[in-house]
Amino acid sequence: MKGLKHSIIILVAALTLGSIEKASAQTKAGILGIDHIGVNVPDMSQAVAFFTDVLGFTPVTQIGPIPLNDAWKTANHMQSGTGAVSIKMVHAGSGANIELFYYENNKGAQQQPGGDDAGATHIAFYTTDINAAVAYLKSKNVKMLGEPFHTTMGDTAGETWVYFETPWGAKMELVSYPEGKEYEKNHPKELLWSPKTAVNNLNTITMDTKDLLAIVEQHLLIWNEKDAAKRSAIAQKVYAADIEMVDRHFTATGYDSINEFVNKLQKDNPSARFTHVKAINAHHNIARLFWQFGPKEKPDAVTGMDLFVIENGKVQKLYVFVDEAK
After folding, report:
1. What is the DSSP letter of 225?
2. pLDDT tens per residue across span 127-180
C-alpha cells in the first residue's frame, strides 16, 4: 500500500505549492481585512447625528483637536491654513468602522466630488429589505438619488441598489441581495465578503445531533461518489459555497477545489473507498469522523480524522488530519 500513500502525498504536495504561492503574496502585506473607511465631514455634530440618529451607528472613540504641522500638511497635500483635526470612529453591525474627520478652519475644497471625478467614492450599506430601508430614509427627509434598481444580468444579477445623499452632499448606497448574486452559482474559489454572510454566521442555530450525523454521512458519500454530477448535487446540499478544507499542508476553498482533490484521489485509487471506523461524534455544530481509506483487501491503508464546523445547516470548515504512516 506504499503506492496509495505515495499518491496522496504527491496530490497534497501539488496543492500545497499553489497554496504557498498565494499565501506568500497575502503575507507580504499582512492584510486581514478592512478595518475602517475614512470620511471628511464639514460639520462633526451634523455627521455624528446623521450616522447615529438616521443610520443607527454608535460613536465609539474620539481624539482631537490635534494641531497639524507644515510637514504633515505638505505630505498629505493639504492647504497650509487648515487648522486642527478632530476624529471620531463610529460603528454598526458587522461591517467596517467609519472614521469621521473634521478640520477646523478648513481651507480645502468644500464641494463634494462629482460622480465621475477621480476622487469620488461611496460607502454601501447592506440591508435585508431595501424597500423598507428606502421608505425609512425618506421619512427622515434623506435625499434619494433615484429608485431601487434590481440587476437581472451579469455577475451581480440578484442585487438591488440605490444611492442616497448625506446632509453634507456625500453619495452613499443601500444594497441588498438576500438570495445571493449570480456569480455565486458557479461556485467560485473566491467569494466576495458581505455583511449578509457575516450576520448569517452570527445567527447560526445549534442543530440536533442526529442532523449533524446525517451531514457527516453525506460527506462520506461525496468522497466515495464516482459520478461527478451526483457528487456535485450532494456537495451543494452539504457544503457551504465558500467551504474551506484545511489540511496540515494546504487549504482548499469552495466546491471546485475540493472536487478537484476528490477526482484526483479517485483516479489514482479507483478501488479504494472511505469508511468510518468509529461512531461519529457531534455536538454544538461540531462533528468528528475517524476514517480509513483503501481497497477491500486493505481498507485501512490510510487512516485519519475529519473535524467539521457546521453553520446554517452546511459544513463551513473541514479540518483534515491524516495519520502518519505506520
Report:
1. -
2. 989 999 999 999 999 999 999 999 999 999 999 999 999 999 999 999 999 888
C-alpha cell at 174: 443601500
Residues 78 and 76: their CA atoms lie apart, in Å, by 6
Kindly report, residue by residue over 69-108, the tens digit of the pLDDT: 999 999 999 999 999 999 999 999 888 999 999 999 999 9
Nearest CA to 101 out of 80, 122, 86 is that of 86
CA distance 221 to 78: 63
Domains in the chain, CATH or no CATH each? 34-110 (3.10.180.10), 120-203 (3.10.180.10), 204-322 (3.10.450.50)
**Assigned C-alpha cell, 184:** 455565486
Cα torsion through 219, 290, 316, 235, rounded to 10:
-10
Treating both helix axes as pointing N-terminal to C-terminal, what angle do 254-268 and 209-224 enclose, rounded to 10 degrees? 50
Residue 179, C-alpha cell as written in the block: 438570495
Q: Is 251 in contact with 245 (CB distance < 8 Å)?
A: yes
The candidate with the shortest Cα–Cα distance to 8, out of 225, 251, 278, 301, is 301
What totals of helices (H) and strands (E) does the chain contain, helices first?
Answer: 8, 16
Please state the pTM of the whole predicted model: 0.60
Confidence of residue 10 (pLDDT cuts 50, 70, 90): low
Q: Are 242 and 256 in contact, with CB atoms under 8 Å apart?
A: no
Q: What are the beta bridge partners of residue 304?
A: 291, 322
Task: Confirm if 69 and 82 have CB atoms less than 8 A apart.
Answer: no
The one-character DSSP state at 54 is I
What are the residues facing 282 on neighbouring strands?
A: 287
Can you tell me whether residue 93 is helix, strand or coil?
coil
